[in-house]
DNA sequence: GTCTATAAGTGGATAGAC
DNA sequence: GTCTATCCACTTATAGAC
């Protein structure tokens, strides 16, 4: 394990550092949103200096776009891979839908893909990021419809469930799981048996 | 009608001014989010000076909380009133659900209630606003469950649909209705016959 | 590849006049 | 009830050293 107290970051290849920053950025932007997060917070989370973050990506906006792109790609891969699996292909529609739903919840637990996406969806007003986010959303819609063989209404319902999950996460409703009965009921029926995944903030290991 | 070019706002009662500011804030925060919006933008939208906005509400944060509270109350009233109507009570569950869905879309068209709420749901990390937003969400959940007589799963599905609508709005997906076939399909099946409501930004009349 | 120093700009909030 | 002036903190981005 790396020491926590080092004041200068070790010298590592740019490509690797890039990934580290993207991971850190996913966590920070995912929690605080684009406007609410600072490049300095990202830098601290990544263990480097703020100017280096900016230098690596050119600007805060470009960093966020990279993040959105990466998150979208991972989501695409995941859904695509799930739909391509033989056991899944063998299921009926209803079964495939449920399987996809669980795959989405899995994604939530593994890395900070979902949160940055959710934050991006709020930025429709931004000329650059908004365009990006809309396109990404539509890519996922088409993937589900075409590769999944679902009707528009079915895709809509699936997306709707995803948006509820996103909302509960960004709201940090999980904080109330232990103390509020209503929250527990809602979370339970939104996340199903996979509820445990979201119940503890998993510290991101490097 | 009031002249647009006046450089000083006319002297009006504080209570009335308050409402104006809240209306303006709903539009600005709804579009740009809490962190992304400035008190100066709110002030300009309301036709007054930036310090006056701050003075009236104490701080940006308090203004936003007021906004959230007001939005929540209006949503509550609306849903509650809809559920209390005799024609609605006479409907079966499925019918009530559909009616509520349309009532929600109506709300989108009438005033800026939905957008600020949606933006608030992204602020779970904020100690003050997050608490507020979570509570509001749960209030609506309970209202639907108890006054509507729905099961948790039914309420979940209703809320999910609402979150999809929120997302499409904050994404400004409606911008693509005219130019992108996929977007048209998605919007069509998310908003149903009420799609017209969201297709033109209605300028807020005073 | 990474940092320190810092410029330049923005935004929330306060003070006090009218 | 409303404004002008202004302070101060914060944030992004640049320059240049190591």
Description of the molecule:
Chain A is mainly alpha-helical and 206 residues long. Chain A has helices spanning 14-32, 39-46, 50-57, 60-84, 86-90, 93-110, 114-120, 127-148, 152-170, 181-191. In chain A, 69% of the residues lie in helices and 0% in strands. Chain A is globular, with a radius of gyration of 18 Å. The termini of chain A are close together. At the A-B interface, helix 8, helix 9 and helix 10 of A face helix 8, helix 9 and helix 10 of B. Chain A binds a DNA duplex (18 and 18 nucleotides) through residues 8-9, 11-14, 17, 38-40, 48-52, 54-55, 59-60.
The Cα radius of gyration of chain A reads 18 Å
What is the string of helix and strand elements of chain A? HHHHHHHHHH
Largest sheet of chain A: none
| Assembly form of the protein | homodimer
Which structural class matches the secondary elements of chain A?
Answer: mainly alpha
Which descriptor suits the 3D outline of chain A?
Answer: globular
Termini Cα gap of chain A = 9 Å
Poorly predicted runs of 5 or more residues of chain A:
none
Number of strands of chain A: 0
DSSP helical segment count of chain A: 10
The averaged pLDDT of chain A comes out at: 93
